[in-house]
Amino acid sequence: MSKSILLVILFLGSLSAPAQKAYKGYVGFGVGPSFITDYKFVNNSLGTGLNINLINFSYSFNDRWGITATCSGGAHINQASVRTSDPNGNPITVTSDYTGAYRLIMLGPVYSYFITEKSKLELKLRFGQFYYQEEFKASSSVFNMETAQSRLTYSLGLTYQYRFAKRWAALTNLDFTTAKINTIGGEESISPINLTAGIAFLF
Question: Which helix (H) or strand (E) holds 62?
Answer without folding.
Answer: none
